[in-house]
Automatic annotation (TrEMBL):
Chain positions covered by the region annotation Disordered: 1-24
Name of this chain's protein: ZF-HD dimerization-type domain-containing protein
Species this chain originates from: Manihot esculenta
GO MF annotation terms: DNA-binding transcription factor activity; transcription cis-regulatory region binding; zinc ion binding
InterPro entries for the chain: ZF_HD_homeobox_Cys/His_dimer (IPR006456)
Amino acid sequence: MMKKRQVSLKRDSGSGRASTTSSSVVRNVRYGECQKNHAANIGGYAVDGCREFMASGEEGAGGALMCAACGCHRNFHRREVESEVVCEYSPSNHSQR
């Protein structure tokens, strides 16, 4: 199973406000079953049954985009993206008078 994780952090301290709000978006990308039609050249429809992308090599290497199970490029596998937004609010420590 190959997962990628992308995190972006956005901070807004506001203009004159005494609080800090930060939010982050976490995206997990997973590549599911292979959808390559192996019988397209003869007008049919046949998939190989590969259920999940498994990289043939390390990230950044030549085989990272080829599936070890079916030999297809990663683009033939169904892409699933899970996004999660996490917001945090921190009030200031200033006391009001």
